[in-house]
Specification:
single chain; mainly beta; 4-stranded antiparallel beta sheet; 6 strands; 0% helix
Length: 100
């Protein structure tokens, strides 16, 4: 899975995947602008989860800028068609109860 992030400033980006629990986390250094972060999808993630990102901008004393933080949240669905089991049944036309 590829997560696209538009960072307004350079800093440390933490990416969390959240379902009924924390599924995975990853931290990367990013530059200002659009970045792509690749995350491997786990087999136990169910039908979807949330991606939450936190970007921490460090203190820049020379520019007179305090540290900052930006947060993003997005739901994504997982295509389960490759894991779908096709079942074909051929029941009798008539089934009576208590018959062997």
């Amino acid at each position: 899975m590829t997560v696209s992030v538009n960072a307004r400033a350079a800093g440390k980006l933490s990416v969390y995947v959240l379902g009924d629990r924390l599924l995975t986390t990853q931290s990367v250094d990013v530059k200002e602008g659009t970045q792509q972060v690749k995350i491997a999808v786990g087999k136990d993630w169910g039908t979807g989860a949330y991606v939450m990102t936190t970007l921490r901008r460090p203190l820049d004393a020379a520019a007179g800028r305090m540290p900052g933080r930006a947060i993003g949240l997005k739901w994504f669905g997982i295509d389960k068609s490759t894991r779908k089991l096709s079942v074909e049944l051929t029941p009798p036309a008539l089934a009576r109860p208590a018959r062997r």
